Amino acid sequence: MIKVLLVDDHEMVRIGVSAYLSLQTDIEVIGEAENGLLGVEQALSLRPDIILMDLVMDVMDGVEATKAIIEKWPEARIIIVTSFLDDDKVYPALEAGAVSYILKTSNANEIAEAIRTTSKGQSVLEPEVTGKMMARMQSSKNPLRHESLTNREHEILLLMTEGKTNQEIADQLFIGLKTVKTHVSNILGKLEVHDRTQAVIYAFQNKLVNK
């Protein structure tokens, strides 16, 4: 079962999403929170597989909540579910550590599929969000940042584009998890990106992987 925590300040949204997800045979809602602060507390207490995070909330918004969760639990998989596509919402959310970004206009089945995909270590981004990220990278002054990657870092980056988690990469390459984390950190630094999602987008944009 994929265990899910819902963080949204609209009770009807929580009720609707929870009701639909309860019909899924592989997804279980284990908690709900009406603001970011409670969301952080429940996330760190319940350790769900997926956190569905609203952005605009009282007490603590989704970006701050995401930062707080990732700071104490870097492996958390957070899906932003919002009505906003503004740059001042998209970039801070992804830079805070969210791995997926979908709209509340998505139908219930699309939300369930996003949960399944994200639980496997892959990202789900609204097409417009992907376009924004690619345009932002395209405007960079140094479009060939990947040339500074070592062969091992390049190898790990390709595995990241396949949705592999750090542990899966470690197992496949027969190296330690700590070593993988160090390489991933180096990759993000050399590519001048903030997270794995941006690194994967960079890889596809610069045709580092044939997909």
From TrEMBL:
SUPFAM superfamilies, per database record: C-terminal effector domain of the bipartite response regulators, CheY-like
| Main subcellular location | cytoplasm
Q: Which UniProt keywords apply?
A: DNA-binding, Phosphoprotein, Transcription, Transcription regulation
Response regulatory domain: from which residue to which, for each copy?
A: 3-119
What biological processes does GO assign it?
A: phosphorelay signal transduction system; regulation of DNA-templated transcription
Which InterPro entries is this protein grouped with? CheY-like_superfamily, NreC/VraR/RcsB-like_REC, Sig_transdc_resp-reg_C-effctor, Sig_transdc_resp-reg_receiver, Tscrpt_reg_LuxR_C, WalR-like
In the UniProt record, which is one GO cellular component term?
Answer: cytoplasm
Q: Does the keyword Disulfide bond apply?
A: no
Q: What would you give as a GO molecular function for this chain, any one?
A: DNA binding
Q: Which PROSITE patterns match?
A: HTH_LUXR_1 (PS00622), HTH_LUXR_2 (PS50043), RESPONSE_REGULATORY (PS50110)
Q: Where is the HTH luxR-type domain?
A: 142-207
In which compartments does the protein localize?
Cytoplasm
Matches recorded under Pfam families: GerE (PF00196), Response_reg (PF00072)
Where in the sequence is 4-aspartylphosphate found?
54
Lineage, top-rank taxon, reads Bacteria
Q: What is this protein called?
A: DNA-binding response regulator
* Organism of derivation: Lederbergia lenta (Bacillus lentus)
Q: Which gene encodes it?
A: vraR_2
